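Anyone? Bumping this.
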Amino acid sequence: MKRTKIKSLLNETTFQKEVTVMGWVKTFRNNQFIAINDGSSIQNIQAVVDFNAFDEGLLKRLTTGAAISVTGTLVESLGKGQKVEIKVKELEILGDSDAEKFPLQPKKHSLEFLREIAHLRFRTNTFNAVFKVRHALAFAVHQFFNERGFTYLHTPIITASDAEGAGEMFKVTTLDFDNTPRNEDGSVNFKEDFFGKATNLTVSGQLEGELAALALGDIYTFGPTFRAENSNTTRHLAEFWMIEPEMAFYDLQDNMDLAEDLLKYVINYALTTCADELDFLKSRLEEEEKQKPQNERSELDLISKLKFCLENNFERITYTEAIDILKQSKPNQKKQFKYLIESWGADLQSEHERYLVEKHFKKPVILTDYPKEIKAFYMRQNDDGKTVRAMDILFPGIGEIVGGSQREERLEKIEQRMTEMHIPAEEMSWYLDTRRFGSAPHAGFGLGFERLVLFVTGMTNIRDVIPFPRTPKNAEF
RNA sequence: UCCUGAGUAGCUCAGCCGGUUAGAGCAUCUGACUGUUAAUCAGAGGGUCGCUGGUUCGAGCCCAGCCUCAGGAGCCA
């Protein structure tokens, strides 16, 4: 008999028909009630067995984690906790799960423990919900850009360019470490390497994205990126996914509008398609926050927070305005900041960003027009000679979720910045060609996908929103 | 990388001032019960106290080094 997915059975209103369900045992209670989950829904279906009618040895194998197939009649439940259940006629164990060895129990586990068994954590409600939401967000990103006529561009994972300066890179090589070919001066001879030059894993697809945008108009990338930074935080991964749109004839305002629209679109998509999952994650977060003191708990629950984000415009202020607000802020005047804001030009620390977003505005904030000294070479210089057309979007609890800018399209200006920042122009000749031939105003940004998933799921550690996290000293599975 | 904290049963944790045979709850196993909702009740089994070395008559506890994890900072998305 053809199997039916649990998700569709839970909404069924016609009863007495025979169905087959396949899934994994969550619990087996009272020698009668099997809670089965097949991943189609965060909810389980209850299958009821008459223990007198089945072999005792067979029922003993209904352990947490076992894969089973049941066939029976779909009926209205006699019990209280669920609407429908299956009266079992046939029961087959597809795969046993030794209860003494299976690490997941019908109880709450710490996220730290589940991280150690990331290959099995998919079986839990929390990770079921997180990865469903992750999928919905990824799908919504493509749908958003597709609806607006953007071209999905696949930029290279392996790159020879190391001038972007977005962080430490992972080397890609086939050279024999025990016998590396050397030049006369003792340095490694990469001419002998696979690509005939030193190569790395990409830290960003932006530069390649710009090349395509200055021909195709509007493009976006959505792929893995790699940073070999020794970062040990709840917001950083060595391998993460990034969305990088790049648009010809966009200025900074257009860029901000697009980023805000994108974020609202995908959050709304998750709210409408993952109601069950978000409801579960909302309760999970509430349980977790009960352990915190009152003043550290969120003012809004997860779903209200997401809706609030949709209903309000992001606050847009310049770096200069932010500095003024911070200078006059209580924690600055009472010297409660670890790094006090004294003058224009200082880079903002996490504590300052958190103050602006969580205390002062209490909503997402877009900061623009940063001093050129603390930003990348490719950002368009303003006429004041001091600032560049950069924009960072800061989210509560997450910090920087988007970083972008209008790009410097004037050849002599970008060359001047490259010289000042010691970036070898000759290696970037292919990039500068865009400025030599039909250069045009353009802009783009990078959105950290896992940080978006963090925000929408209410999870607090980035290692819990990617299936197999890659962090310093950890590349398991 | 820096700062702080942690590592004791499958999981979550307690373990006093260094002193007898290292405890609890949950999970597991055995039995009972049989419309349960993380079922309940009774009983049982389960330990390289992160690793290495040191101090001591004696170390889970004190000291040193290392490993791993978590939180914060930096870097950033």
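Late reply, but here is one note on the structure posted above: Chain A has a mean pLDDT of 93.
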